[in-house]
Protein 1
Amino acid sequence: MSDPTPTDSNKESTAKKRSPSDFLKSVLGRPVRVKLNSGIEYRGVLACLDGYLNIAMEQTEEFGLDGQLKAKYGDCFIRGNNVLYISAQKRKGGS
Amino acid sequence: MATRILPLELIDKAIGSQMWILLRGTKEVVGTLRGFDDYVNLVLDDAVEYTPDPDDKTKVIKTKLETEILLNGNQIAILIPNGSGPPEDSLAAQSG
């Protein structure tokens, strides 16, 4: 179901420049912003993730639709089906 | 016989150029396409997100994301290569 991103075992011929799996590798362990379909945003350090975009984050901060800080979590798990996008946070280093 | 072009080839040709993306629901995104996969998950640079203002639906909130993003293909409805975003900041899903 849903949307597993191709893993290393599934080498796609279409990706030339910078494929989603390249991106995911490059943001591992870095601060990211994760926006959900609902509009809620989570910022924290990306601990690990899989091809479904399931995400484990550390030092997580939750921001509501108004952009206000709503909560903080030490660790949190986000189920991938809720993820709209993952964005590397600020500083373009490594991209 | 006419040469056939696969849909993903069309997206592949658009790599490096700007792309206007309509998502399921009312959100829209514009950004420079860096790559994609078989699920049409997209890697975008300099992405701008357009969402309706929750308080006043006729207004559009424009958010510059400033970094590279990975957009979930699950949410994508329509891709418009070389699209420059919603005209007059009115979202497609809200007009007409």
Protein 2
Amino acid sequence: MNQRSHAAEIKASSVGKSFGNFWALKDLSLDIGRGEFLTLLGPSGSGKTTFLMILAGFTKPTTGRLMRDGRDITPMPAEDREAGMVFQGYALFPHMSVEDNIAFPLRVRKASGDVIRRKVGAMVERVGLRGHEKKRPAQLSGGQQQRVALARALVFEPSMLLLDEPFSALDKSLREQMQAEVARLHRETGTTFVFVTHDQTEALALSSRIAIFNSGQLLQVGDPREVYERPKNRFVAEFLGEINMLPLSGLSFDGQGANGAFEDRRIFVDETGGNLSGKDTLLGVRPEHMRLVRSPEGAVNALAAMPTGATYGGSATRLELATRSGIKLSLSVPTDEANAALASEGPVWLTWAPERGFLIPPSA
Amino acid sequence: MAPLLLFLFFAYAVPFFGVARWSVTLPEPGVGQYQALVLDPLVQSVFLRTFRICLFVTIAAVAAAYLIAFVLVRGTPLQRLAVEFCVLVPFWISVLTRAFGWVALLSNRGLLNSWGQQLGILSEPLALVRNEFGVVVGMTHFLIPFAVFPLASAMRNLDERVLLAAQGLGASRSRIFWSIFVPMTLPGIIGAALIVFVFALGFFVTPAILGGGRSVMVAELVYLRIFQSPDWGLGSAISVTLVVLVGVLMAALWRFIRPRELAG
């Protein structure tokens, strides 16, 4: 396929959806850039799928507007939106062959037989389904059905592709393979992709930006690194991966950074604070940014903790620790190190660089 | 299970084997009655008429039931309630009452004809009853509910997302209906058609009343051969033929759709 497909630019302003008294999505404003791979991430019931359905045109928003390339598409029905969609469970047409499934959007658009043959052929080739054209969906494996769904959604060169948890039914290795495939299709088609998932690893690996949802609200949007390393609140911090959190007292800002007290140590963070008040603020550090050392000497941030247990995990072992005041921490370390730490009598020391920490405002 | 099977055995199987025996023993042993059945032009025409009526009834009942099932499954809650009521009510009224109801509506002095004449639309009454038309109308009305259940079940089992997918890919409503919805509910349509056809084959009361003795169907012919022109051998042979036909169709039905899907 050539690069003819036009990538859409979407602007959602104050989009909301209520079912009776329940707001599935509240006041969402979000811009989706041309050719971007945006992931909507959140637990089930967070509003991410509702937003995807609003983008697709299957759900009418209760409030707000949706603009595509400067044009209001809020009232436009789904069949006119030219958006490819891959559903959870694929939603293939069971009574049609692979070929006919892929040709469907072209037939609907009254493409000529020649065009259909050429485009379907190219698409079959592209998703690696050569030799399966005449089969029915029921005769295909999960991964192959997934490919048919992708081919069917992309064959008419839509200006955006919407994917609703497309990998949830696949096993781990197939899932990774399909993720790579979707990333490749995104590169090759240049179309705007909007992807819904509840799997943070998937979101971090695939997206150019991630929008994190919880209970109907958009909490934060940013590139994967930004949302992982600088989460704006506790939910985002916890949802994106393991995190160690320490309550800081006496937080003060000094132009270059902040510092506060935890137990008997002073802790430094490279954060200018913004509108954080000093009270009840948490310090967050990702476990992989903490180091296990014998002595705190020479480290800016250090804290003592007693190892309390370990979970063997193959390549690394998860070491559980507790500080003197009982705050629980975890750390991923080589198995030998974990065993040594558990065998030692006294406490061990954890250190981390000031730029690795971030402040989390007290949760509302 | 056992008492039911025992009951079915004595109530149906034993009498049926009795009838099957008559068909090869009366008036004399042999397959003569079956030869007569094949050769007798009257019997032939009755079988032919039966098939023709059953075919019309099947098409009409399944088409109507498809629309009803569609509203029942995909309509608004109020529409569903209304349709459910209209489908269930006829079950509470006996087949005899319903047949006479149709006579009251369709006969020469019936409601339709008298209104038509009063309003000046009709100069003389239309022959709506005591013919095949009346039989088809009455039987269709009776059989629609039986077709609604397998169709509604097929429609309910259809994955909503497949329809959304078609819509998202740009298909219009009529396109979705004809290219996706109908083909995906085809097993239900075949099941409903077979049920209606099999039921229609054995109809007795409705054709006897609405056909007015002129549109005799197979079941009525059996009755006539047994009770009016005592020819028990031929009557039995016709009965056995009818049962075999129904059996073959039931076997086809079982192959097309699993019984689970018929239960609704």
Protein 3
Amino acid sequence: MTSHAPLQKPITPFPGAPTPTFAPTSQKPTAQTSLRTPSNRKTIYDRNLNRTRTAELSRASFAYLFAEIVSYAQKRVTGIQDLEKRYIIPPSPIVYLLPTLNDTLRTRLSNLGHPLGLRLLPLLLHRTSPSPLSSSSPLPTRPTRIIPLLNFIARPLWTHLFGRPADAIEHSASAASDNEYMITDNEPLVNQYISVPREMSQLNCAAFVAGVVEGVCCGCGMGAGVSAHWVGGEEDGGGGGKGREGEMWPGKTVFLIRFEEGVVEREKGGGG
Amino acid sequence: MSYYFTIINTRDAPLFELEFGTSKAGGDGAARFSPEARAMNPFIVHSSLDIVDELRWGKDAMYLKRIDQFSSSHISTFLTPTSIRFMLLHLPHPPNLAPAFIPSPGSYPPFTPYTSNPLSSSTSSASSSSTFKSSTSGAGSIANNPASPQTEEAIRLFFWDVFEVWIKATMNPFQSMEKVLGSPVFKQRVLGAGRKYL
């Protein structure tokens, strides 16, 4: 028992110290004090979601930022290969798995775009839907079929991101690849100030945009894998027609959207 | 009416929960669920998630209206484009107990958990709505009747406000779409929307 006395002593080294004043302040760490708001007392909840005119970003700063994103992703990457996809936690209950093959630059860019697409989908639908205050206006809708979804991507989403709609939407002609859709952009803004070295020529940095598109598709519950491909036709000497197009639009990029089996089946089943 | 509002993510986990009462017709904005009802509410809401999944590909509206009923609790749903579900359980007070006239915390609206099943809801809701209609005050506010168009409209406006606040919350890059919404400002805003419309 006597050994306890010296142990207790250091706990209260200053008997007359301001412990009583300390106690009451520590007793009420309320939500008011723990919440840190900006100095003008405006939180993100006070901002208007529809203010778009002044929110446009200058192209120079975007180009600089995107170039930095690409070089950041490149620094931590081992190789570039086609069609790899890191496993992304499925936003829909329908589990989709594309196996982890390689942690590549393209994957990294795509993964950066994915959350962006998930957030843009509700935001743009909110902006485009009519004011809910008049009861006669139709109820705001969300895309439940493939075609409205692609239209949403090619028009409002593209216009929001790049200031113009996408150039084409196509459906794969062959029955074997029924689940494949293509969105074409003749001159992607993201690639405008990126020059890819010759040894990496199969890399298309629009993989970032492909990630955004993928985020939108998966957010809707229509799981899809999206990849960006050159159509320029310098490397893949496929069709001659492609080469001609390549002359006119050297940066022409196709976003190949592969929907999962279940999505196409549901589409055929009449949406039930 | 008493309300239990919850936001449920794509993997059926609740991200946000809130109980509140009506602020219309002299209500004080406090929820009056009995202890059993309070315990049952999450289960009732969870059980109607299946109905949301059935409806989500058939309708393309975000507001799915009143989708389910369990005993005297009604469930309305709003489905965001990213498949996050806003579920609102509304429990009307019995006609002779308008919210303003419940003096003691011991007297709750009756909660009859296992008597009526949702399949037979059409008859029961018809009979109950007639009794509610006779008792509603002429204040022009939401009738104490969950099936009425006014209630549907009020819930639609409530959901739209919450949708807007939810977008603002999720635009934050540090807030995952699938994680709990813990912001006190978010809670205040949802409460504010409830006070405004419900």
Protein 4
Amino acid sequence: MSFNNLDTLYRQVIMDHYKTPRNRGKLEGDHITVEMNNPTCGDRIDLQLKLDDGIVQDAKFEGEGCSISMASASMMTQVVVGKPIEEALKISKMFSDMMLGNELEDHDYDLEDLGDIQALQGVSKFPARIKCATLAWKAMEQGVEKND
Amino acid sequence: MTNMESVRKQFPILNQEVNGHPLVYLDSSATSQKPSSVIDAVSDYYKQYNSNVHRGVHTLGTYATEGYEGAREKVKDFINASSIKEVIFTRGTTTAINTVASSYGRDHLQSGDEIVLTKMEHHSNIIPWQQIAKATGAELKYIPLQEDGTILIEDVEKLVTERTKIVAMTHVSNVLGTINPIKEVAKIAHKQNAVIVVDGAQSVPHMRVDVQDLDADFYAFSAHKMCGPTGIGVLYGKKSLLEKMEPVEFGGEMIDFVNLHDSTWKELPWKFEGGTPIIAGAIGLGKAIDFLNEVGMDNVEAHESELVSYAMEQMNTIDGMTIYGPKKRAGLVTFNLDDVHPHDGATALDSLGIAVRAGHHCAQPLMRELQVAATARASFYLYNNKQDVDLLVDGLKKTKEYFGDVF
């Protein structure tokens, strides 16, 4: 028995984000908070976004969940901070397509532009785990909607 | 003694590979697998005598009615109800409990009354009571859990008072494996003129249940956890109580006379079975009961008891293993492994062909009580064997190594 196929899912970079999450904590000052659950498995994220002048000024999260959900949250905050909100949403759409195993050619970004996020590509081969990976992104989208 | 290996061979689904490994199915508490006899019985009904029941005079309709009502007889004997009037077919345990809450609960609860539950209930034995409590002004009280996941009879005696109208309790916890002392609790409830509603989803499939001996007022269970099809379950209720209860679903099948402004209901149990019933499901459940009777429920219980003891003993040898619940338990083990989130663990096991459940097991209040967000659960049934346990333990060791190494 070996876990060769698992390596597609649990790349070292995912484990790194899980063990040493970036942007974990609480934002000070004015910000938007979104709490989101994955009711089927109990994953929970508490995402805080600071949105000003059309830009994601800062993002932090707290929560509880599996390595995929927490690593994805860490990576998401890392990539969206400093980006225009429009751009963050475009990346989110691309991420969603990546999870669904769709072609990514129509998107404005290359996988390489997304940094660590590309490590999550393997999740698309594990349908039961896609919801874990998308939780933080859905929270981000909801936060942006709240801002409108 | 029944040969359990020959029992296992009657489950065609178990004879396959998943992700390149022989399937090790350890999620029977979620739903059990079905033996060929049950699958064939459902298929035969559709192929040979599919017809509606209780109506018309044609031959196939008679066969279908015999199959459907014959299944009710089998259920009656299986749980030792005193009459078929006490056996109502429902969609499952959830519908059965909702029926009691919506009918009996609505008529008997008022502001100031209390419903007593335990902190180990499945959502399906919490939310119907929350809803009826909100509608009637009644209050929910929870029996606390001991460190080992059991309840104390003294706590039951303290919490069940003259204000208590309903005690709702699971017979076997789907997370902890705890077997609750239903007979004693029923006595305490009856002393206060309360009724006891028992969630039997995890007990009826695995042990001999005698509703009269337990003196349960209502008892609910699902076919799909006991080798039967999905979509059908049973509400047992004492005739004296059911007779006074109003149906909750109105329409075809359940009526006696229908006038323009008023109607009357059929007698028990049919007044609770509005609409065309779950005919194929009932026939499948009947066959599942035949199957379990052939194996013998005492054998099923003894087999699972041996397996679960072995599993706990083996799993406890793994470093960083936490097992929840009491030592004396039904055939399931809920656990967490240090440094491995249960979803990650379940995915790793799945890649080895081992199916376990991960998550909150539809028992969020209990998860909070245990102070965990999620757990993993391996649950056993009559078709599992020691090799399944060995493969699980081996898989868990590899999983721990894997997640340890990646860091």
